Amino acid sequence: MEQKRQNKDKDFNKNLKELKKIYLNLKERYSELPSFDELNKDFQIEKLCKTQTDFLIKEIRKIILDKFFDYLKFIESLLNPVTESPLFVFSIIKKIDAPKKESLSEIYKKISSLEFEIIKLDLNYSEDQEVKAVIKYYKLWQEIKKELTNTFSLLEKEVEKSNTKNTSYLG
Description:
Layout: H1 2-29, H2 36-43, H3 56-79, H4 87-93, H5 98-112, H6 115-123, H7 127-167
């Protein structure tokens, strides 16, 4: 069992080295690309070492977009909840004041505005266009990440404040 795990670790490390090597080759041709480590820190692109592809940059773009759309869905559930939304969403919604709602709406618009661009990229592969997209999305993520962190920190404080008020009543 231990031997099997060690072999998996060796394979993973070998594949990860190969992935980094391929990415470095891309970075040498497109110097504006973020470093492998920067992308990996935000988007966990190392999981691509399990994937065999001739279109690494396209796969990286897809991983980045997966994260964008996960947040898009969550923000949408806060801005426009439906009955199928998780229950905790409804407790958060009560705490969203106008400035927080505006911030979330702006982030939502930024992410959703990428839809047509994504469709065009999927329909017509171009390494140059894929690279430009990865650079653009990485920069956008850095901007959005700050906004999300700030907004969610404020929301978290509001929810915690509300929870402590509710737990102090003993009936």
